[in-house]
DNA sequence: GTTCCGCATGAATCGATAG
DNA sequence: ACTATCGATTCATGCGGAA
């Protein structure tokens, strides 16, 4: 059966109500961060963020299968010299809503925004919060194991200090950094720290997160034919990756501009897939 | 003047009251994590953790200089399949107490303890929460600069060959000013992600952090002759590093065993320092 | 065809200036 | 006093043009 990619235009708070309950295997999304992207999303004030998000997370809880997982990519910004606390408040409120806060992965951004400030360094990481409905959920750990090829072994012998750090980021797109520990084995399990670069200047559009990010979580939490949902689709990275990986997906986007752009990209990609089968 | 290392035996909640207010430049500590290390510290239950810590953080707020910084190394453990929320609750409560939550650094542990669970990967990171009394605080960023990446290196190499000679002939015109800025800089500022290995050395303490961790923050937030405090001294890593870096320090430890061990180590080290001067 | 170099560009943050 | 906008700061990355 062909893979379905269902793209919908509208406010996810409303559109989500159209989806049946217990129908999604993985929700992977990166909502607009508080007080950012004002031009495109209207900007949610940090003080109002939790209040704004909770009705949406309630719908997400409804549509997620009991065995499914919700991965939320978010990072609080600095307000008045302090880190905002809305992400922590959101976690606490979502737990009251019925979510389990299972894990917090760290996305270590290799190329973060430059800048110099008197009392702060560059912010090089974001949160990837894992939420679940039940303690038992689907997780396919073997799918994200890091292969330890021969090249890694040979390169380890004569590594300069600079090469060491560079080498780490090349192994399996940033996973499995402790090379020397795992030399004896073929594959290693990753950790809860992901070391990836942002794809900053793509030709037509710049995605908020690199393809490797949704790809990793789709591998980890779904199998082929499963359903992936991104309620804040944006440039459609999650859905395109899902399609390429043989997963059905649903994407919701509030901006017509993004919606049409993703629609067009999907048509191109689906045509490619069709032709490759003929 | 000789560097003072003041080690005290007792419960820090009480001992801290002996210290004068506004007297400490940096507090760096790793308190017992909730419900962990039961054998050595009696284990604080996650539900009671905030309640237990707040009187201590109140004393810390009192003894810290207005220009000082408090760095708290902590990580919530997994309870019943979920991450505990006591760290987030602690941050929210400490802000009510008057602390500013300035930043959250990530310690990415290079070689974390191996292990495999059905629904979880190895935990390879810990939080380093930075709290301050004021928006203005002492920070010596140059002390922790790191070597630059490859791009800058290759660029520098090329600059020195093509543009350097031209620069010399036009001194004073301002033409080569940018170039000399680049030439002078072989180091870049770090980010808020620290990538350090854990030390697996056989210290008689269950959760020793590597020396590089306190060393980095002592460099960043203090100068020689400043005062560093670790209210949960443990094996005394913070104080030993401070001594080696020419900082005065105070350490408080509740266990006699640790207290005497650190006392002895300090005597040895101070004798070394004394003899090297003679 | 390779390799190399130049350049634009980011979920950023601060401080100053303006309404 | 309090919010909105703007310029300056700065580095890893990928692309396109050049050698």
Task: Show the helix and strand layout.
Two copies of one chain form a homodimer.
Chain A: E1 5-9, H1 12-15, E2 24-29, H2 38-41, H3 49-63, E3 64-74, E4 78-79, E5 82-83, H4 86-97, E6 100-109, E7 125-132, E8 146-147, H5 150-157, H6 161-170, E9 187-188, E10 193-196, H7 212-221, E11 227-230, H8 237-244, E12 248-253, H9 256-277
Parallel strand pairs in A: 1-12, 2-3, 2-11, 6-10, 11-12
Antiparallel strand pairs in A: 3-7, 4-5, 6-7, 8-9
Helix pairs in contact in A: 3-4
Chain A binds a DNA duplex (19 and 19 nucleotides) through residues 30, 32-33, 36-37, 73-75, 77-78, 81, 109-120, 122-123, 126, 197-203, 206, 208-209.
Largest sheet strand order of chain A: 1-12-11-2-3-7-6-10
The quaternary state of the protein chains shown equals: homodimer
What is the CATH superfamily of the largest domain in chain A?
Vaccinia Virus protein VP39
Q: Roughly how much helix do the residues of chain A carry, as a percent range?
A: 25-40%
Largest interface (CB within 8 Å) is between:
A-B, 43 and 43 residues
> Roughly how many Å apart are the termini of chain A?
15 Å
Question: What are the segments of chain A in which pLDDT stays under 50 over at least 5 consecutive residues?
Answer: 149-184
Overall body shape of chain A: globular
The ordered H/E elements of chain A are EHEHHEEEHEEEHHEEHEHEH
Number of strands of chain A: 12
What is the CATH first-level class name of the largest domain in chain A? Alpha Beta
Structural class given helices, strands, pairing of chain A?
Answer: alpha/beta
Overall domain count of chain A:
2
Q: Which value, in Å, is the CA radius of gyration of chain A?
A: 20 Å
